[in-house]
Amino acid sequence: MSTKVTVKGQVTLPKAVREAAGIRPGDRVTVRARPEGGVLVERNEAPQLDAAAVKAARGKIERALAALDHKGVKFEMTTDEWIHLLRGDD
């Protein structure tokens, strides 16, 4: 497989390569030049969430579920309404 380098030095990794390496949108990768030439692209390990981040996320989910239970789920809700419901006023 080949891909073109843009004027900004960017390349698009072909879908088959992304899938084989487990690279998804938003993932971080490490790029290294090999001494014999060529480039190595590796997926970084997913960052570990700290306990406080997990607790905060769990609290937001629980508040959203409580709001859904209290209000009833409306399937007509807009994306903005869902986002506001899930994120609150943060």
Explain what the structure shows:
The protein is of the alpha+beta class. It folds into two domains: 47 residues, Pemi-like Protein 1, Chain: D; 37 residues. Strands 1-2 form a two-stranded antiparallel ribbon. The radius of gyration is 21 Å and the shape is elongated. 0% of the residues are buried. The model has no long low-confidence stretch (mean pLDDT 84).
Give the gist of this structure.
This protein has 3 helices and 2 strands. With 90 residues, the chain is α+β, with helices and mostly antiparallel strands.
SSE layout:
Blueprint: H1 15-21, E1 29-33, E2 39-43, H2 51-71, H3 79-87
Antiparallel strand pairs: 1-2
Protein name: AbrB/MazE/SpoVT family DNA-binding domain-containing protein
Keywords: DNA-binding
Domain SpoVT-AbrB: 1-47
User: What is the molecular shape?
Assistant: elongated
Average predicted local confidence, pLDDT: 84
Total beta strand runs:
2
Q: Biggest β-sheet, characterized? A: 2 strands, antiparallel
Spatial order of the strands in the main sheet? 1-2
Return the CATH class of the largest domain. Answer: Mainly Beta
Number of structurally distinct domains: 2
Gap between N and C termini:
45 Å
In percent, how helical is the residue content? Answer: 40-55%
CATH fold-level name of the largest domain: Pemi-like Protein 1, Chain: D
- Poorly predicted sequence stretches spanning 5 or more consecutive residues: none
The assigned structural class equals: alpha+beta
Radius of gyration, CA atoms, in whole angstroms:
21 Å
CATH architecture of the largest domain: Ribbon
In terms of DSSP E residues, the strand content is: 5-15%
Question: What is the N-to-C order of secondary-structure elements (H for helix, E for strand)?
Answer: HEEHH
Keywords: DNA-binding
Pfam families: MazE_antitoxin
GO molecular function: DNA binding
InterPro entries: SpoVT-AbrB_dom (IPR007159), SpoVT-AbrB_sf (IPR037914)
